[in-house]
Amino acid sequence: MLTVSVKTFNEFTIDELYDVLQLRSEVFVVEQDCVYQDLDGKDKKALHVIGSDAAGKVVAYTRLFDAGDYFDAASIGRVVVSEYARAFGYGHTIIKASIVAIDRHYNTKNIKISAQTYLKKFYESHGFSQIGEEYLEDGIPHIAMVING
Length: 149
Description:
The chain is of the alpha+beta class.
């Protein structure tokens, strides 16, 4: 079971922040072999959705932005689930929680994401639709997707 919490940057404990940054580095930099600047200065403005397993280990995460902070619409980014935890469907759990958190905290159902292309069907299963053409972001194929609630 995944326990989900939603926090501002200032609400992180040092251990939670470390665990989130470790997970992001583990997947985005090491597993996906992508050298990029993960610490981009935007975490302080974001709302953070943190998923922990039964042992308390951070295994899923997203960061959220209000409309105008990243895109014109509210957005979900840095969507990550640890490799071992993907088999449990935690990606679906963290995205559902992120959509709810955007509605609750930003009072909108309009969401835009920059999704890795191979995850198109995953995001479509949560109501997102592709807009525009595929593009490269940090050397990885991406597509813009939206929910217009």
